[in-house]
Amino acid sequence: MKRSIPAAAAATVLNSAYLDPEFSAAVVHWQKQHGRHALPWQQSRDAYRVWLSEIMLQQTQVTAVIPYYLRFLDSFPTVFALAAAPAEQVMAHWSGLGYYTRARNLHLCAKQVVDRYAGTFPADPALLGQLPGIGRSTAAAISAFSYGTVAAILDGNVKRVFARVFGIDGYPGSKTVEDAMWRRAQALLPARDIASYTQGLMDLGATLCTRSRPACPRCPLQTRCVALAEDRTAELPMRKPKKVLREKQAVMLVLLHEDLVLLEQRPDSGIWGGLLSLPELDGMRDLAGAHAAHVTAALPQIRQLAEQFGVVGEIAVLPEFSHVFTHFKLHIRPVQIKLAQRRSMVAEARHSWCDLQQLHQAALPAPVKSLLTDLADARPAAFHRA
Ligand code: SF4
Which of 47, 50, 75, 131 is 20 to 30 Å from the Cα of 142, by its Cα? Predict the structure, then answer.
């Protein structure tokens, strides 16, 4: 899959309000004195090695990456060797490192660098960003380390440092906050020492400005850090806001005649598409709607609906239970209706009677299956009479 640098990236307007040469000077100075210099991939500016390490370091700690990086280089010393290797061999070398899409993209990327660029990684971050598995920040890092290109990075570690130093509120994964951080990252770039600056930001985030318990007394940015001054290091960067789950309610009719229960086939599309379920009174409704009223108020309609299928006997409102979908929580209020007699023909072809002992063979949604199984196991049960 082709990944391209977002148009916004190329067009990031330099925001003069964010210009701050002392910031990069402090980071560069600290990196040269205290940053990491002995990592295996830091011993070379070869773009193949830099790229390999950057991909491996996405979502994986340095200590876990080192042995994999060394083994990879041993087996695939050049991009040509990697591109020519069978996919299974590449996957076997990645095995244990996790996030296997990275390995598949790595292999694809090596092939494209060989085919399109004769084995030389392009220096332009915009071109690097079009290769599989290379995002905007990774493209900038590869280009900065390999070719000295002045380009901004913004990975999770850098976002954390920025959020704290500059006191940036809002979730950094949101588009607005992220765009503002990119503008800041761009404006903060130094004219020289880009490799030390890039490495310095990475080192700060990985070794000092860690998620919990940042080592502020040793940080070169402590005198200007808003989070430290305002005692907000635990609060920044802000967490992803929790989604408020919509709540819906469905009144489901458990129509029983002797050992049979009436099932209704759901429409092919939508929730539980094509499965068998229970007839519902007016479908799934927002909890704030009319269904929020106590179900006993709807008993006349329930009775009317039930009469389509037979002669209504006892009605009992069963305890409510809920089921959580990705986008909403459904409160299910079952109403059990015993039919003294059932009509020989059901109202529509999508209805069918199922023996309670044969439920395991029916394609039912999980919560409906467990409701009916419980009912079948517990019969006869004393339910609250409506
Ligand atoms: S002073 Fe502390 S919180 Fe602020 S950037 Fe440095 S390590 Fe992070």
Answer: 75
The model's pTM: 0.67
Cα 234 to chain center, whole Å?
Answer: 23
In a domain, 237, yes or no: no
CATH number at residue 115: 1.10.340.30
Distance of CA 221 from the midpoint of ligand 1 (Å): 6
How many angstroms separate the CA atoms of 226 and 224, rounded? 6
Range of the domain at 337: 246-378
In this structure, are 115 and 173 located in the same domain?
Answer: yes
Q: Is the CB of 44 under 6 A from ligand 1?
A: no
Rounded Cα distance between 118 and 120, Å, is 6
* Residues involved in catalysis: 54
Assess whether the C-beta atom of 168 lies below 6 angstroms from ligand 1: no
Where a domain ends, among 229, 257, 285?
A: 229
pLDDT above 90 as % of the chain: 68
- What pLDDT score was predicted for residue 16? 73
**Whole-angstrom distance between the N-terminal and C-terminal Cα of the chain?**
58
Ligand 1 pocket: which of 160, 228, 232 to mutate (most atoms within 8 A of CB)? 228
Planar angle of CA 271, 366, 270, nearest 5 degrees: 5
217 C-alpha to ligand 1 centroid (Å): 8
In a domain, 1, yes or no: no
Q: Work out the pLDDT band at 87, boundaries 50, 70, 90.
A: very high
| pLDDT tens digits along 138-165 | 999 999 999 999 999 999 999 999 999 9
Secondary structure of residue 133 in the 3-state scheme: coil
Asked, for residue 30, whether it belongs to a domain, the answer is yes
What are the helix and strand counts (H, E) for the chain?
15, 8
Strand partners, 256: 261, 338
User: Is there a single domain that holds both residue 296 and residue 327?
Assistant: yes
